[in-house]
Amino acid sequence: MKIVGTIVEYNPLHNGHIYALKEIKRLSQADMIVAVLSGNFTMRGDLSIFDKFEKTKQALQAGIDLVIELPSVCAVQNADLFAKNAVKLLHLAKVKELWIGSESNDPSLYEKCYQNWIKSSSQEKIKELLAIGKSYKEATASIIDLPSNDLLGFSYYKAIKEESYSISIHTIKRIGSYNSLEAKEYASAYAIRNNLSLIDTYCPTFINRDLIRDSGLLFPHLKYKILSSSIGELKEIFFVEEGLENRAKEITTCSNLKEFIDLLSTKRYTKSRIQRMLFYILFNITRQDIKNIGLNFIRILGYSKPGKSYLNLIKKDTVIFTNIKEGLHPILDIELKITKILDMIYSSSSLKQEQGKPKEI
To answer: Which of 192, 137, 156, 182 is nearest to 13 (CA)?
Structure first.
């Protein structure tokens, strides 16, 4: 039985993703696809428009056989750390092939970029650019100039090389660009999020618009957290640095989340960087909480029958969590805290699902 993996956010899952899954199965001749899924929050710090359990159900309906959660504190990171965490989960699940969407559709490109990346002159240039106030994204782009999907693909490749994992990367051609409606059958997730009526045209019929969450509801709770915290307390939050704790207090001048993100964003601190910081502030996740956290387990959100059988093959060598409770692992304790707060904000019952069995189709 051939097992391959992919790393997804599905925010939301659309026809382009369905095409990608079909291509992965066709090209890889795989019997089963394992997906590492970022749950309630994405790499850029956005709230997913569907909760992680609905996303899991959708992934299974789309043809995924095993859904592994990328916990929130491992997902809401820069591209390199996001990739490092996601690839480690595939390694723990004993997956040997990673399939990703790519603009170039040329995986050999990553090795060429890697050889340039590891040059001492390249690393010195990055340090110099950071020292004069360039963002990390700008600094790395001066060395590795790739479009968005390939840049993330390079991060996956780099993580595999640095950890010496026996995982090979394979690509499928990405259709359309990040924010466009270039192909008649396909729209990007970004375009759909900016016009949710497009779900009816560009997403599978099992995507239920009635379950969409409004990220705007987070703003009053974020505002309360910032205003009720001292400057010293804000400084202890992960991702808060270099005076951002003071600027965060300017939230009183903003009426919504978008205004606040725009206010705090600068050339050095991109909107994605600010959104990540606000995620950690909202859930009161400190540097101490994150310090020395090791991702040494896989948490299962859902499976098909073949996926469930596969777990039995790897459970002797891999720590596997399905339903969770407090005290299992610090990462999962944070995940439970996030779930409880989101349940309060959205009047949902995700905590029951955290503590129940994985989705099965």
So the answer is: 192
Residue pair 75/47 in contact by the 8 Å Cβ criterion? no
CA distance 299 to 321: 5
**pTM (predicted TM-score):** 0.96
| Geometric angle at alpha carbon 72, from 311 and 230, rounded to 5° | 150
Task: Using DSSP, state whether 159 is helix, strand or coil.
Answer: helix
Asked if 158 and 114 count as a contact pair (C-beta separation under 8 A), the reply is yes
Cα 292 to Cα 178, 230, 286, 332: the distances in Å are 35, 25, 12, 14
Give the model confidence (pLDDT) of 271-320 as tens digits.
Answer: 999 999 999 999 999 999 999 889 999 999 999 999 999 999 999 999 99
φ and ψ at 264, to 5 degrees? -85, -20
299 forms beta bridges with 69, 321
Three-class SS of residue 171?
Answer: strand
